[in-house]
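Bit of a strange request maybe. I'm writing a small parser for structure token strings and I need a real example to test against, not something I typed by hand. Could someone generate the tokens for this chain?
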Amino acid sequence: MEDTKCQISSSTWTTVFLACANNGQSVIDSWNASSSISTTINGAVTSDASACRLKQVRSSLIDNWSKHNIDQVKVEVYKNGSVIAAFYFNGLGTNHINWFSKNNLLGTTYTDLTRSSTVNYFSIEGIEERHFYINEHFGGCPADEGWILVRDVTGQVAPCHFDHLTKPPYFIVSPGNKKGRFESGQYILADIIEISVHTNTCKCPSPISKGTEQIVG
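Reply from user aminoacidic:
Good idea to test on real output. This should exercise your parser:
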């Protein structure tokens, strides 16, 4: 019987964005466009913490997203050189903004976050100064529960304590493998966010149907 899964080769992922915490440069503005607050290069970004110490680093591949047959996108969050959280997304048929969504989620290190999870925010735009934001619900700051947010330098400042922890931008992720209540201290302040893309190099149906994807290593 023919395997209905699309077997995608495990070629090298290409890093297209590297954001460092506390460097004073907007993450969402750097992601969206080349500017003086970011360093834009052609091709792959070097995955090196020192590279984004002063400015976020982006690849010009982001500006031509639809031309590169991107089948998967990976977001890795680092603390002290180790990955503490990761998210995998379908990239086929997406643009540089809408790939980051619950409908495109393929997998994550969080066991309680799936395509069927209840969320009130799951987007790059997020709300106010909270970007790359995945949140389950609001209930007044102490009851807010979520998985990740970038507290950026742009946008209206929200009222919770976790919106004022240190010099922005900074990256909050829930510890362990489940959502956390950030206001109650259930968070880790991460150092780096790395976004990588994988290109479909096999003769697979395009677009790949939801449910037939496989996460590549």
